[in-house]
Amino acid sequence: MIAVTGATGHLGHLVVDSLLSKLPADQIVAVVRTPAKAAALAAKGVAVREGDFSKPETLSAAFVGVEKLLLVSSSEVGQRIAQHQAVIDAAKAAGVKFIAYTSLLKADTATMQLATEHVATEKYLQASGVAFALLRNGWYTENHMAALAPSVAHGAIIGAAGEGRFATAPRADYAEAAAVVLATAGHENKIYELAGDTSYNYAELAHEAAEVSGKPVAYARLSEAEYAKALEGFGLPPAAAAVVANADASAAKGELDSTSGDLARLIGRATVPWQNTVAETLKQA
Fold first, then answer.
1. Distance between CA atoms of residues 110 and 104, nearest Å
2. Could you tell me the residue range of the domain that residue 61 belongs to?
3. How far apart are CA 157 and CA 227, in angstroms?
4. What does the pLDDT look like over 34-65, one tens digit per residue?
């Protein structure tokens, strides 16, 4: 059986959906913090099991009979190292033979704050003795879409990435790649740098948003500190604002751009162009 952690999350549920197109439902295990929230998956025949990263005692039973596991990185920044290690330990003890982990693009060389916990997890997994695959995910196109409509309304996209480029793809593309790695052979001890086929900077994003919306949109270039302060003004907690602003500053150094092509090769097609997602987002606004 194949298990996916965080199976009701933004990425996890898309991985399960993709697996359902490749495997019988009874071969898939959805590991979730709150099983009641996974009723839709259970209705499809997927086995739903409780598995809370912060409660290691729930993990052993979650992984019984599982051969391959996707460890979707926790969303709780600052707690992820201990949480991920608990998952890896429980999976190894349960006899899981292969663990794929959703890491960060260029994690081993990245300077951004988000990289620290990913690197620690990668090293722990590599030292575990369990066969692994590191799925180093780049930015999701959706990361820039949540604020796109308000940005168009105000005529400005703000950020601290300078001219830095983002090689993004939709979550669904990354999810499909993860499903391929889980459902097919030959991915043991591989590292994949996953990113979209095409990239953009904020000025290009603003131009595209203007073209689609028919309204003037410019890129307002801020410093890392200025951007963090602006995000706090929008209601983001200071710690979260600092992490987001730091990621932008790291993008200015090329850390979220890539021409690896690994994502397209895994899914067997071109990644969805970011322009498509911009058009869909503004159409729905």
1. 9
2. 2-138+170-194+260-265
3. 11
4. 999 999 999 999 999 999 998 888 998 999 99
Q: Are strands 218-221 and 190-194 parallel, antiparallel or unpaired?
A: unpaired
> How far is residue 185's CA from residue 181's CA, in Å, rounded to a whole number?
7
pLDDT digits (tens, 9 = 90+) for 101-134: 999 999 999 999 999 999 999 999 999 999 999 9
Which tokens go with 118?
A: 């990913």
Rounded CA-CA distance 53/117 in Å is 15
In the numeric block, the tokens 């983002």 are attached to 166
CATH code of 21's domain: 3.40.50.720
Tell me how crowded residue 44 is: count the other CB atoms within 10 A of its CB: 13
Amino acid at 214: G
Does the residue 154 lie in any domain?
Answer: no
Tokens of 280: 């869909």
Chain centre to alpha carbon of residue 213: 28
* Rounded distance between C-alpha atoms, residue 91 and residue 129, angstroms: 11
Asked whether the predicted pLDDT for residue 285 surpasses 80, the reply is no
What three-state secondary structure class fits 125?
helix
